Amino acid sequence: MRFLHINADALCSLQIFEDESHPNMHMQAKSKEGLSLFGILNNTRTSSGKQLFKQWFLRPILDLGVIDERHRTIECFLQTDNLENSGQLVSCLKNIKNIPKIIDNMKGNLNVKDWQSLLQFAFYCLKIRNIVRELNHSENIPIFTKIRETFIVADLKEIGSYINDVVSSVIV
């Protein structure tokens, strides 16, 4: 993929990002996003979502196919007959924890909370798959096709059952 390089001066002039000092003088090391394009448009719910969104601003993509795909995906979510499903999708995504972090923890010892988060992940993947199947105007949108093909119901149920057995044996 090709990206547009934007230097610091351009980011500043265009007010893409604007750090404001924390109003509490004891917390001056921390800053928050001020009045900027990023601050206005950022409706992300997770730290990893915020990081990805920030990368999109720092390195805008030049590939018109990817831009068109993103536009069509957003357009699908904003269709009047998809608003309820879009809201359900947001609710599902709020319940999915930072899975890469949990997978990294698997190298050591997972606690019951991590196992429960993995179980939730499998459960909400099933719900997300069902919601995506119900979306109108979602044909030929690659992300939805990928979800329908990748989130295999039998596999997710088997994973959920296995994790449930592990959690039950740890609790007992």
Automatic annotation (TrEMBL):
Q: List residues of the DNA mismatch repair protein MutS core domain.
A: 10-137
For this record, an example GO cellular component is: nucleus
Set out the biological process GO terms recorded for this chain's protein: chiasma assembly; mismatch repair
Which GO MF terms are attached to this record? ATP binding; ATP-dependent DNA damage sensor activity; mismatched DNA binding
Family classification: Belongs to the DNA mismatch repair MutS family.
Matching PANTHER family: DNA MISMATCH REPAIR PROTEIN MUTS FAMILY MEMBER, MUTS PROTEIN HOMOLOG 5
Q: What is this protein called?
A: DNA mismatch repair protein mutS
Give the organism, scientific name: Glomus cerebriforme
